[in-house]
Design a protein that fits this description.
With 201 residues, the chain is mainly beta. It is 7% helix and 52% strand. Strands 1, 2, 3, 4, 5, 6, 7 and 8 form an 8-stranded mixed β-sheet that branches. Strands 9-10 form a two-stranded antiparallel sheet. A hairpin with a 4-residue loop joins strand 9 and strand 10. The radius of gyration is 17 Å and the shape is globular. The protein starts with a strand and ends with a strand. The mean pLDDT is 88.
Length: 201
């Protein structure tokens, strides 16, 4: 009998780029899925030129094929459910031309001795920004009880490599406690202090 042992909520606001949530846990047979839970589109000006508007929620695992430079290349339209034995799952939310988008990712334990919901023992948040301080995306990694220790340098490099493959301008990464930033607060990163600062109204 399976049961949910971990859940992740991802939110992406129009000014904050993509959102990624990575869960690490002791290896087990799992079923994971993600689905959009909310989407808000803003109507543009009358007769304005065409602009892209979309939101995609998908999953990456160790079985996701790699593209150039070792960057995972999932099928963003179909990879919203996986079933395998693994010790980590990465939920992704990408959107463009929206006010807000959110998604819910769940991991089910399929082992016969399925345990109670997992306990998070370490959480780290990172924000990727350009040289002007504009936020391009966020990455949260959560270590659940019994998982191996996090290699923060490796995580930073992987997130930077992914961001560099998506944009042409220089990017950097900083540690930020996203739990202390109100969900709807627009912010940037001060390149000098490397700290988040609110955007003017």
């Amino acid at each position: 009998m399976s049961q949910v042992f971990y859940g992740a909520w991802l939110a992406r606001r129009g000014d904050l780029g993509w959102a990624t949530h990575e869960a690490r846990f002791p290896a087990r047979q799992i079923l994971a899925h993600i689905q959009l839970s909310a989407l808000s589109l803003a109507d543009g000006q009358r007769f304005q030129s065409f602009r892209r508007q979309y939101a995609l929620a998908y999953i990456e695992t160790e079985l996701t094929p790699s593209g150039p430079f070792g960057i995972p290349m999932p099928n963003k339209e179909t990879d919203n459910l996986v079933w395998l034995e693994t010790d980590q799952v990465t939920f992704q939310l990408q959107a463009e031309g929206v006010e807000t988008a959110s998604a819910l990712g769940l991991i089910h334990d399929l082992t016969p001795q399925a345990e109670s919901p997992a306990k998070a023992v370490e959480t780290r948040d990172f924000v990727v920004h350009d040289d002007q301080g504009s936020v391009l995306g966020s990455h949260r990694v959560v270590r659940l009880d019994g998982a191996r220790e996090l290699d923060l340098d490796d995580i930073r490099q992987r997130v930077l490599d992914r961001a560099a493959s998506l944009v042409t301008r220089p990017v950097d990464i900083v540690s930020v406690d996203l739990t202390k930033i109100p969900p709807r607060l627009a912010f940037r990163v001060d390149p000098r202090t490397r700290r988040p600062v609110p955007l003017p109204d």
